[in-house]
Specification:
- It is a single chain.
- With 187 residues, the protein is an alpha/beta fold.
- It has a seven-stranded mixed β-sheet, sandwiched between helices. Strands 6-7 form a two-stranded parallel sheet.
- The protein is built from seven helices and nine strands; from the N terminus they run H-E-H-E-H-H-E-E-H-E-E-H-E-H-E-E.
- It has one domain: Rossmann fold.
- It starts with a helix and ends with a strand.
- The protein is globular, with a radius of gyration of 15 Å.
- Helix 1 packs parallel to helix 2.
- Strand 8 and strand 9 form a beta hairpin.
Length: 187
């Protein structure tokens, strides 16, 4: 996943302005490559890297190498159980496509409980195009069907899924051929 993050980080930073956020949490953020890149580009922001204990065990090295360790808290846990509270931006990069809708609603509900009332949830995923347009995400969808029992979703499917956890989609910003930023606010 770290290699994939390297491939899309620059596109995400070019497409979306993270500077308004004081505290950015990367939920299921692996060792933290994407969060480190965001923090390096937004010196006024702090970060929380949240993932399973064995995943974040060596994340400090990556944060040190990116010179953002002083602004990033590393927290081990399970996003299906609970999340640290108070971030005004939460990232979910290539998380939701791994799970069925019921599990996603559980993850998103935990995000909703933890995010600030004026925060933004940023779902970084491929968004399926209408029929006969954009094959890339459709190939990812086939891969998800065969592998982890997940799926890629259309814009309308994201709106519906996020609404089940009390989020409203405020925009969908393409960030390259393989990923978009689905921005949502708590309602």
């Amino acid at each position: 996943m770290g290699a994939y993050s390297r491939g899309v980080a620059a596109d995400i930073l070019a497409a979306y302005d993270f500077s308004p956020f004081a505290e950015i949490m990367d939920v299921g953020g692996g060792r933290g490559f994407l969060l480190a890149e965001i923090l390096a580009a937004t010196p006024g922001s702090r970060g929380i890297l949240f993932d399973q204990p064995h995943v974040v065990a060596t994340a400090g090295e990556l944060m040190d190498a990116a010179d953002v360790a002083g602004r990033c808290k590393i927290v081990a846990g399970d996003f299906l159980a609970a999340l640290p509270e108070g971030a005004d931006a939460m990232l979910l990069k290539w998380i939701l496509h791994d799970w069925d809708d019921a599990t996603n609603v559980a993850i998103l509900s935990n995000c909703r409980r933890a995010i600030r009332a004026d925060g933004r949830l940023l779902v970084l995923e491929a968004v399926l195009s209408p029929p006969n347009e954009g094959a890339d995400a459709k190939f990812f969808d086939l891969n998800m069907l065969v592998g982890p029992d997940g799926q890629e979703r259309t814009a309308e499917e994201y709106r519906s899924l996020l609404a089940k956890a009390d989020f409203e989609v405020t925009g969908i910003i393409p960030a390259g051929p393989h990923i978009s930023v689905v921005e949502a606010r708590p309602v």
